[in-house]
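FAQ

Q: What does a record look like?
A: Structure on top, sequence underneath. For example:
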């Protein structure tokens, strides 16, 4: 709060000549609004981290990329990494953006349910996500919008969906490349400490 007031004071001293003029009241009101708007830091990772094994309903806030979403859950805001799939990153053009759009389409109704499976090293909740379209990760695999690390996911339904998409050359399987193995691409393109603040975001109003 002290830092915000210091910034506000500096701005007011620079604009003192406006305060005594005909636009003075407007200048003051604008300064107050800006001081509070700019003084609020973005929460890169929402604070609520549910326990592994929890199962509950949430509402979609935004899609951050092809396998990460922000949700409004009963316990608060939570960032979720979808379990059972791995989508191309936003830097893997155009595959990353296409994966985001595919995920958004599957979450069109905005109401989802979660089954929490784990928590990753970035503090994100790793969970199975279900919408009106059913198991979202399974649908992404079937559409060829995401890949799968079979060493971590042994569910036969997921493996079958992956095999069918590859055989049909759907989505990412239509053209060879590292977009088919986003975990390898990330190894050579590590995220910076503020990567979440600059990643592409697909908002829903």
């Amino acid at each position: 709060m002290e830092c915000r007031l210091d910034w506000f004071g500096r701005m007011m001293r620079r604009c003192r000549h406006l305060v005594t003029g005909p636009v003075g009241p407007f200048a003051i009101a604008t300064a107050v609004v800006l001081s509070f708007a700019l003084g609020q830091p973005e929460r890169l990772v929402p604070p609520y981290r549910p326990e592994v094994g929890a199962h509950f309903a949430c509402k979609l806030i935004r899609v951050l990329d092809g396998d990460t979403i922000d949700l409004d859950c009963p316990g608060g805001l939570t960032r979720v990494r979808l379990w059972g799939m791995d989508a191309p990153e936003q830097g893997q053009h155009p595959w990353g953006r296409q994966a985001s759009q595919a995920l958004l389409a599957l979450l069109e109704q905005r109401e989802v349910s979660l089954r929490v499976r784990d928590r990753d090293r970035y503090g994100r909740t790793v969970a199975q996500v279900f919408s009106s379209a059913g198991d979202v990760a399974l649908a992404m695999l079937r559409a060829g919008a995401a890949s799968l690390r079979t060493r971590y996911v042994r569910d036969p339904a997921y493996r079958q969906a992956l095999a069918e998409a590859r055989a049909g050359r759907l989505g990412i399987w239509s053209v060879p490349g590292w977009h088919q193995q986003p975990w390898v691409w990330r190894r050579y393109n590590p995220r910076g400490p503020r990567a979440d603040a600059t990643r592409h975001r697909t908002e829903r109003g």
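Q: Is there anything notable about this one?
A: Residues 66 and 100 are 4 Å apart (CA to CA).
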